[in-house]
Amino acid sequence: MHDTLVLYTNPMSRGRIARWMLEEVGAPYRTENLPYGPAMKAPGYLLINPMGKVPALQHGNTVVTECAAICAYLADAFPAAGLAPPLTERGAYYRWLFFAAGPLEAAMTDRDLGMEPNVEQQGRVGYGTIEAVLETLEQALSEHEYIAGPRFTAADVYLGSHIGWGLLFGSLESCPAFVDYWSRVSDRDAYRRATALDDQAMA
User: Fold this and answer.
1) CATH 1.20.1050.10 given to domain 87-189
2) Superfamily of structural domain 5-82
3) Largest CB tally within 10 Å, which of 30, 52, 67, 77?
């Protein structure tokens, strides 16, 4: 696929996940940094993402929003990067990519906002309890070098970003499994390039 890639982002957003993924696939792309406020709600950008949020990825005539979807899309669009397992081996890859996008992010957001469900409400939320989410994740990360097995994949870009932010900002309790995993997945040239680009944009 040779269509132009455009990343709509803000360096203080989840757009950092999308940039890391773009650096992993190694395809050339253009960045449109949008400030928070009117620019994200302008009619032109709302044609890209009606939610008025970043990131969004445009690849020719294709638009993808939501970071987990962007990671999965780029892994498929640029298979030479080797960031998705073969189709017959994608069970764990899909499971943990969307575990991070669903139960983990929802549970961490609810905790940050002081809205953890009580005992009666736990059966009505997809993640049940934050404790169950973190225990499940800790066990999974203790069993393999990467979340979907022995190889780094797009799922590690997405999950790793959440764990890295959680450890940095204190929204995730530190434990050896989380710390060791984050150390492994962040020790990559693509992550360092992406971080430098976003830090430069912030400055």
Assistant:
1) yes
2) Glutaredoxin (3.40.30.10)
3) 67
Tell me the whole-structure pTM to 2 decimals: 0.95
Q: What's the residue count for the chain?
A: 203
What residues form DSSP beta bridges with 149? 146
Domain boundaries, the chain: 5-82, 87-189
Rounded to whole angstroms, how far apart are CA atoms 139 and 135? 6
User: Does the fold of domain 87-189 match that of domain 5-82?
Assistant: no
Query: 1 pLDDT exceeds 50?
Result: no
Here the tokens at position 170 are 């204190």
**191, pLDDT greater than 80:** yes
147 close to 96: Cβ distance less than 8 angstroms: yes
For the segment 142-152, what is each residue's pLDDT rounded down to a tens digit? 999 999 999 99
